[in-house]
Amino acid sequence: MGKPILLHLGDDIKWNHGLYKQLQDKFEVRRSYSMGRDEFKRALKSHQFGDFVAMYRPFWNTGGEMGNWDDELIALLPPSCQIFTSAGAGFDWVNTRALAHRGITYCNAAAACTESVADAAIWLLLSTFRRFTWSALAARSCDAARFSDANRNIAAVTRNPAGHVLGVIGLGRIGQRVAQKAAQSFGMRVVYNDVRRLPREVEDAVGGAGSATFYADLHAMLGVADAVVVATPFGGEKVVDATHFRAMKKGARLINVARGKLVDEAALVEALESGHLEAAGLDVHYDEPNVNPRLAAMENVELLSHTAGASIDSHVGFERLGMENVLSFFETGKALTPVNLQWIDQKAKL
Question: Annotated catalytic, 306?
Fold first, then answer.
């Protein structure tokens, strides 16, 4: 019997060569490189990669040329496949429930980019309080009148975040780290909404002015928060719509470092234009890579190009964590960062 087969999606690894050697010692590594969807489908149908037991995608920019992992692709996987590990935090491009129904564990790599995304969220948070974009654009214009306008008028509409309430939608790894940085560095009080209340030790770990306070009702949480960070995975539906904006305090701020489709963008524009929201900071957008021009024209809106998690540190971690997930799964029976175990467990009980 030969070694079990692992299908490596995308480019060569760049950093964790010693760990990759461990993978090669335990598995026969076969490559798909950057096949488009039609070619990849033909390869699966013809059994080109053999009966692979695992799929490993180390980078976000490569290895995903086959497009969304929907029912069509998943149905073509061999019965031998047990785990799929991929770079990146979001997994709205893969039907993790369908994978689970095939008995395949899906692992993301959110843990590897937690620090980078949290740092970006804090920068966006600061920008919404201090209007850094207005000041920066005025300075970069090299226009003395614009510079003087920002210099003279920005203080009248800006605040320090200290003493304000931060609301976090989704207190996962990234949400927790954002909350810690805001509480411990700025003295913000943290409230959060999630599908369930987290253990007390997680709430206490936020630190700063005290434990994070759980709100089971999102509308109630929005009513007390001065700034709201969206940090929850995309589950197929909007999390913040017009009713939620109306529930937010007048003068509140919204930061989104999760997925653009979690927020009703038209309702966000309306809330900003009406003055109900003070400012917004967006790393992600509803129709990426297209940015809403109405948002882009607002000086009280900070915009990024979905780069919150983009750092060498994150990418080194993506590459490493994917391999660690595969090795752990076949050595211990448990992956490190699975996201669809609830559906695999349901299948096992049937």
Answer: yes
Residues linked to residue 192 through DSSP beta bridges, in sequence order: 168, 214
- 236: CATH: 3.40.50.720
pLDDT in tens, 120-138: 999 999 999 999 989 999 9
Q: Return the closest-CA partner of residue 253 out of 277, 231, 235.
A: 277
**Contact in structure between 57 and 322 (CB atoms under 8 Å):** yes
Choosing from 8, 164, 259, 285, which is the catalytic residue? 259
Total domains, the chain: 2
Strand extents, DSSP E, the chain:
5-9, 28-33, 52-57, 83-86, 105-107, 165-169, 189-193, 213-214, 227-230, 252-256, 277-282, 301-303
Question: Which entry of 28, 72, 273, 288 is annotated as an active-site residue?
Answer: 288
Residue 349: pLDDT over 50: no
8 Å CB contact between 226 and 201: no
Q: Which domain holds residue 273?
A: 114-303
Nearest of 285, 260, 312 to residue 116 by alpha carbon = 312
Instruction: List CB contacts of 200: < 8 A, sequence separation 6 or more.
Output: 211
Give catalytic status of residue 253 as yes or no.
no
Is 259 annotated in the active site? yes
Q: Same structural domain for residues 107 and 119? A: no
**pTM for this prediction:** 0.89
